[in-house]
Amino acid sequence: MPRPNRFRDMIRIGPVQVGSYYDGRGRDRHTAACTAPKCGFSADYRNRAAAELAARTHQCTA
């Protein structure tokens, strides 16, 4: 059974949360996910700046 993600360095930019975690191979990854109802936006990035840029430019369609 895979271990759950352990997010760290969480920040919120509008409705989007950005967090960092280590993937299964020990690499540092960053996720941006919208918390608005019925939005469904989430994406993984290799660097923190890209995740924060996605959070700042995200437009909810719902």
TrEMBL record:
Pfam family, one: SpdB
Domain of life: Bacteria
InterPro entries reported in the protein's UniProt record: SpdB (IPR007806)
Name this polypeptide is given: Mobile element transfer
